[in-house]
Structure formats: structure tokens, C-alpha cells
Amino acid sequence: MSLAATTPVLPRPEPASSTARERVGSPGAEASRPRVLSIAGTDPTGGAGIQADLKAFAAHGAYGMAVTTALVAQNTHGVRTVHVPGADFLTEQLDAVSDDVVIDAVKIGMVADEANARAIATWLGRVRPPFVVLDPVMVATSGHRLLDEGAEQAVGDLVALADLVTPNLPELAVLLGEPAATTWPDALAQARRLHVASGAVVLLKGGHLTGEESPDALVGPDDVTTFSAPRVDTVHTHGTGCSLSAAVAALRPRRDDWAGAVRDAKTWLTGALRAGGALTVGTGRGPVDHLAHLPTLGLRAFSEEAWERIAGWREAVKGMGFVRALADGSLAVEDFGFYLAQDAAYLAEYSRVLSRASQLAPTPEARQFFAGAAVESLEVEQALHRDWLGEHAGMDRGAVESVDPSPVTAAYTNHLHAASNGSYAETVAALLPCYWLYSYIGDILVRRAGDLDGHPYARWISLYGDPAFQEATRTACSFADEAARWASPAELERMLRAFELSSMHEYLFFEQGIDRPTWPEAPVGDAEK
Description:
Layout: H1 3-6, H2 18-21, E1 35-40, H3 49-59, E2 63-68, E3 71-75, E4 78-83, H4 87-98, E5 105-108, H5 114-127, E6 132-134, H6 149-159, E7 164-165, H7 169-176, H8 184-198, E8 201-205, E9 216-219, E10 224-227, H9 240-251, H10 258-275, H11 302-309, H12 311-318, H13 321-328, H14 333-360, H15 364-392, H16 397-401, H17 407-420, H18 424-449, H19 458-464, H20 467-485, H21 489-511
Helix pairs in contact: 3-9, 4-5, 5-6, 7-8, 9-10, 11-21, 13-18, 14-15, 14-17, 14-18, 17-18, 17-21, 18-19, 18-20, 18-21
């Protein structure tokens, strides 16, 4: 039965009011993490169903809860039998949760039969959770239809009560009563028709298509957001759909929109797919590794390990001729002018990398931080450079902005751009020394210069040691540490390498133009922090 042909666009239920939500749980208290409920069947091997959902919730920092629709005897080779306790017991479970716990998001998977689907619909209308994600489990990987006609129609009705629905191509076809799409444009057209018919945003999953890329798309009321990721060559795909939809549900309460939640969930799922084979669970289509990032849990903070790795560069910084001369005021005006002109050229490229970090950032706070830093570097810092160079070197704005980067400067910015072509985590790691080592140098300058009264470079030394910049450095460290928490061991090593290379480039950048830099051994002793 076609959803488009039989189901009118229903009025979408509003989330429960704050007053209603405070009647349960801890009234007025701010929860430490999202509370997310899975409504689905079981998988005793742990790769799909509520077991997979709970792992995905935990992997994204959510508190997971589960209501069982069906007890399924299955393994990595397939389903053997299904026991459905019944809609009355399902309702008892749902009410037991919602009577006591504030629910921040719901993920619905296998409903098993029509009665269960109708019971879930009734409960959703009564409780009205803020975010509802429906994974319409209707077609097996083999292509076998899992539900009878009445149950399929009931699931179609649930779509109109969901905020996000995540069908694969066969499921999308069943919901619309159409043949399955065989091309991406046809699939997008079907997703648009489902959105118009139901009002739900559609996360279209293109994994059934062939090709090197595995495209997905969010189809909503205003536009289409396309996500592309390399297709992971693995047979360990059991529970992939369950896990993706659960991850999106866990992320949505802490993301601005569905696009942000989907983007981060897909990044996580790609890593989970790649790591699945190493689990050696089952002899068929094994599960993904929901906790592929687990090796980073319990380790030292990224910033702590990264800072220790550059002990040699930190020791070398203390002996730089540039720092000595700037601190005691003996630095030649022409040498300082050369440094500022190169710094102006550097800032133009640095701001682009900051903007890239803002685009990749997973949270509103990180996006705002890096976007603000990009504007600051262009509008404030470059203006200070132009003022000094205009007064002391006779360079107008055009001359400053047309300065050719030196080989040292170009090597630094090329490194930052290369890092920003990778992940958000690598980008932040590469940017961090631009804050931290710069701040470290500022601290050295302030201590060595002492009383700045009458110092020829007093204004600049004050800027290097600015408390606001020190605070920005701490914020950048916290973002890098958070990104590292979700990094695989390989990505964590790339982060550390990017941090080391940026530290090297930072040292060479300051030292260029006066004393030729001596290549330091790294690490060197216990350098001061």
C-alpha cells in the first residue's frame, strides 16, 4: 500500500512543553547527557536491534534506554525465529519509561507487526518526544519483505509522526508503493515525494547503489543536503542501518540541526565499519565496531601528550635569536618589519584554515570560536600589522597585502592547508600550536622584557602575552582534546604529527630573517610548561 496514496499529511505533534517535561525525572535539573530511548527488536549476537542502539547511544555520550518490540533469535547469518510479546506489553514498557524519565530523543527500529506500530503511534501522540527518528525496518538484506501489508501501512503512518525517517532504497520504495530506484536522481525524487506526503525529513541512504562513493542525502522542506563518504570494502555490515539511525538520535539533542547530527554520525560509522572485521564476531556478516574509538578513552588528554612531544621545540624556542632580541629591544626595525610583513601574508592563509575548521566543527561552540578567530586574524591583527608597517616601513595597504610569502612562510601555510583537507580533528591539531606555542613565546617575552616602559616593542610584547589570547589558547586545547576523544588510534597519531609539524613551522617562522635557525633535537630534557 502506498503511503503517498493513502496517508494525508497529518498535523505534526509539537514536543511536550517544558512544564510537562519537568513533571518527571529531576524537575528543573540540567541532565549531564541526552536520554535516548530505543524501541526495537533484539539481536542476541549484539550487532543490530536494541543492543546495537544502546552501543551507538553510549558511543555518542547519550544515556540509553530500550523498549523491546520483539525477541529475535538471529546471528550473523540471519533470523531464525521471532517472538512478539504483544502490543499491550509494549505499551506497558513505553509507559513505564515515559512516566518516570524525561526522554530527549527516540529511535524506532523493528516494530514487528501492525498492532505494535499502532501502539507506538498512540504513545508518540501522547508523550510527544522532542526528536523522533524512525528506521523503517521493512525489507531484509536479501530483499525479502519482513512485514505483511497491514504492518507496512502502519509503519507508513508512523513516518508522519517522526521527525526523521531513514529508509534504504528498498524500504523507500515500499513506503511509496513504487519500484526501487536504481539511480541516485531517481532515489532523490522518491525521497522528495515521501517528505511531501509525510512531512518528515528523509535521510536517504544510497548504500544499495554501486560505485566507489556511498552517498546519503537529507531531504527536507527547504533543500537537499548531500553527504558522501568512501564505500568501505567490508562484509561486516550487520546492524549498519540500526547503528546509523541510533547515532543520529543520540546526537540530535546536542546539534543545531539534522545535518550536523547526520554528518557526525556518518563519520563515526565509517570508522566503525572499517574496524568491524577486527572484532571477529560470527562467521557471517559480522557487526560494525561501535566503540572503535575506545582506545582513546582513558588515555591522557591529547594536549598533554602533544605538549610533551614538542619538548625539543619548546627548548629551542627559548634560545631563539628573534625572541632574545625582541625581549631586550635590540631587534632591528628592518628585521621586525620583515617579520610583520611575513606575518601579514601568513594571516591571510591562516584565516582560511580557521574558516575551514569552523565548517568542519561538530558543535556550535567550536564553529563560533573558529569563525570568530578567522575574522579576528583578518580584521584586527592584519590592521595592526598594516599600521606599524605604514608608520615604520612606508608600506601602504596594497604593499602589505601583496607581500610574497617567504619559503618558510609558504611551507607553514601549505602544511596548514594540507591538514585542513583531512578531518576536523587533524585540522584543530595543526592549528593548536598557532595558539599554544605563540602563547608560550608571549609568556617568555613578557618575563624577559620586564618593565615595558619605554620599550620599543612594548605594544607587541603586550599583545603576545595578552590574557585574552591565553584564554583562547585554553579553549583551542579543549576543542582538540574533545576531537581526540573520538579519534581512532591512526587518526590520533595523525593529530600528534600535525601538531609536531606546526610546532616546527612556528619555530622556523619566528626565527627566519635573522639568526639562521639551528635544528633542535627533540625532545630535549624537561622544558618548562
